[in-house]
From TrEMBL:
<feature type="binding site">
    <location>
        <position position="240"/>
    </location>
    <ligand>
        <name>Mn(2+) 2</name>
    </ligand>
</feature>
<keyword id="KW-0464">Manganese</keyword>
<feature type="region of interest" description="Disordered">
    <location>
        <begin position="174"/>
        <end position="203"/>
    </location>
</feature>
<keyword id="KW-0342">GTP-binding</keyword>
<feature type="compositionally biased region" description="Basic and acidic residues">
    <location>
        <begin position="174"/>
        <end position="198"/>
    </location>
</feature>
<feature type="active site" description="GMP-histidine intermediate">
    <location>
        <position position="409"/>
    </location>
</feature>
<comment type="similarity">
    <text>Belongs to the RtcB family.</text>
</comment>
<feature type="binding site">
    <location>
        <begin position="208"/>
        <end position="212"/>
    </location>
    <ligand>
        <name>GMP</name>
    </ligand>
</feature>
<dbReference type="InterPro" id="IPR036025">
    <property type="entry name" value="RtcB-like_sf"/>
</dbReference>
<dbReference type="InterPro" id="IPR001233">
    <property type="entry name" value="RtcB"/>
</dbReference>
<dbReference type="Pfam" id="PF01139">
    <property type="entry name" value="RtcB"/>
</dbReference>
<dbReference type="GO" id="GO:0046872">
    <property type="term" value="F:metal ion binding"/>
</dbReference>
<feature type="binding site">
    <location>
        <position position="486"/>
    </location>
    <ligand>
        <name>GMP</name>
    </ligand>
</feature>
<keyword id="KW-0547">Nucleotide-binding</keyword>
<dbReference type="GO" id="GO:0170057">
    <property type="term" value="F:RNA ligase (GTP) activity"/>
</dbReference>
<feature type="binding site">
    <location>
        <begin position="409"/>
        <end position="412"/>
    </location>
    <ligand>
        <name>GMP</name>
    </ligand>
</feature>
<dbReference type="GO" id="GO:0006388">
    <property type="term" value="P:tRNA splicing, via endonucleolytic cleavage and ligation"/>
</dbReference>
Length: 487
């Protein structure tokens, strides 16, 4: 008899190691799957994640199954760590299954520096980064543009940054989609969204967004690490942020419009936060174009932060950033919906693959993987907490068949921000990280540090172990924090 678990009336059957299924029943259009070890499953079941995952299977046209990654936790309507692929012709597209921070994502910049080169200069570097990389709520960015600037960024993405000398051709070549969604439609982004974005270009924002200087501590796959240009004790920089207020406004605008224009579909869903527009409808096409424009905005946002970071390293280390080897390893989105072709029961189908808090993880040979990595597979960057370290993975051979080419996006929260501020004192967390772990943290407030304390996250080692053992994202290297700045 199959091993089963039940949480709040939701029954899961264990299909094999780390794979649990919620069988299809009632209004579900497909089963749902949770990819987790026993300890992670207990944490995932501790909030509304399982109910939200089950609800997601009610989306019209959902293919195969909805999936929850090992870092999954409760989100807005659709769980964070969720993947749902809907038919691009007969299905739907759901802003709630993408999230408010469109193209929240992460990039890693390599350097030729080693930890020995940096040791003793941590405070100088963290202070300089904090002073020069805009962060926190509200406005202020690397570029103070007007609406015309924003519209050009929305249309052209990283190509705009290249023209204005904020990026190199090599940067574009090492970014998902080369940093440009050509199906962007800036005219479908509201004036309010553009106004919110015009003074936020090149800023981290707040919450869990950060810039972290790290050192490579472990290499698990020598061949892939060499292809990625990573070695032990190397210094790298991780940048995690998204589309700021612009992306949030795009999501809000289209959720409201769906409520007004597609109430019939909304009434058939178990949660109004799953609001979706039918594939092929005018509203679906407009949302897709606006979302792609916000995706471009986020890529430029991270590129401008990269530009400013390179300048800081030049001043601190007294060499040009090119001589310091500060090249982009990869930039990958983890809040996104994209038209992709996948095998569904032996048939190639075009799908809207919604990844919300999930990272694309394509294996070797897939044409979307940058040419530099096509023979080994796509780099996958998995941030942990600011006290635990992060991972670089490579797209696994089983990702396409198991998860529509996806894996986890981080450690995943186990505690709300409100609870975290009750449990932790920001200054204490900061001092302990410095004194006990030689990790230097600087943030806009102690509350921000408390909200992001290492204790509020799942065990990233366990999340990555599950991904690796399932073959959806394979371990390449592990990194450990040196300096961290937060909004």
């Amino acid at each position: 008899m199959n091993e089963t678990r039940e949480y709040d009336g939701i029954r899961l059957e264990k299909l094999r190691e780390h794979v649990w299924e919620i069988p299809q029943e009632g209004g579900m259009n497909a089963p749902a799957r949770v990819l987790a070890s026993e300890p992670l499953l207990e944490q995932i079941a501790d909030d509304r994640t399982l109910q939200q995952l089950k609800n997601a299977t009610h989306l019209p046209g959902i293919a195969k199954y909805a999936v929850c990654m090992p870092d999954g936790h409760q989100g807005y309507g659709f769980p964070v760590g969720g993947v749902g692929a809907t038919d691009a012709t007969d299905g739907c597209i759901s802003p709630g299954a993408v999230g408010y921070d469109i193209n929240c994502g992460v990039r890693m910049v390599r350097t030729d520096l080693t930890y020995d080169d940096l040791e003793g200069r941590e405070e100088e570097l963290v202070d300089s980064l904090f002073a020069n990389v805009p962060s926190g709520l509200g406005g202020g960015g690397v570029v103070e543009g007007d609406v015309g600037t924003v519209e050009s960024v929305l249309d052209r993405g990283m190509d705009w940054a290249l023209e204005h000398d904020y990026a190199t051709r090599d940067d574009l070549a090492h970014c998902e989609d080369e940093g440009q969604r050509t199906d962007s439609r800036p005219e479908f982004v509201s004036q309010k969204a553009k106004d919110r974005g015009k003074n936020q270009l090149g800023s981290l924002g707040s919450g869990n967004h950060f810039l972290e200087v790290q050192r490579v501590t472990d290499v698990f796959d020598d061949e892939v690490a060499e292809a990625f240009g990573l070695v032990e004790e190397q210094i790298v920089v991780l940048i995690h942020c998204g589309s700021r207020g612009l992306g949030h406004q795009v999501c809000s605008d289209y959720l409201r419009r769906i409520e007004r224009e597609h109430g019939d579909l909304l009434d058939r869903l178990p949660d109004k936060e799953l609001a979706a527009a039918p594939a092929g409808s005018r509203l679906a096409e407009e949302y897709y174009g606006a979302m792609c424009a916000a995706i471009n905005f986020a890529w430029v946002n991270r590129q401008l932060i990269t530009h400013r970071t390179r300048r800081v390293f030049e001043r601190v280390f007294g060499e040009d950033w090119e001589d310091l080897g500060m090249e982009l390893l990869y930039d990958v989105a983890h809040n996104i919906a994209k038209r992709e072709v996948h095998d569904v029961n032996g048939e190639d189908r075009e799908l809207f693959v919604h990844r919300k808090g999930a990272t694309r993880a394509f294996p070797a040979g897939r044409p979307e993987v940058p040419r530099a990595y096509r023979d080994v597979g796509q780099p996958v960057i998995i941030p942990g907490s600011m006290g635990s370290g992060s991972y670089v993975l490579v797209g696994g051979e089983r990702s396409l068949s198991e998860t529509f080419g996806s894996t986890a996006h981080g450690a995943g929260r186990t505690m709300s921000r409100t609870q975290a501020k009750q449990e932790f004192w920001g200054e204490t967390v900061r001092d302990e990280l410095r004194d006990q772990n030689a990790i230097y943290v600087k943030a806009q407030s102690g509350a921000t540090v408390a909200e992001e304390a290492p204790g509020v996250y799942k065990d990233v080692d366990e999340v990555v172990r599950v991904s690796d053992e399932l073959g959806i994202g394979d371990k390449v290297v592990r990194t450990y924090p040196v300096c961290n700045i937060k909004g």
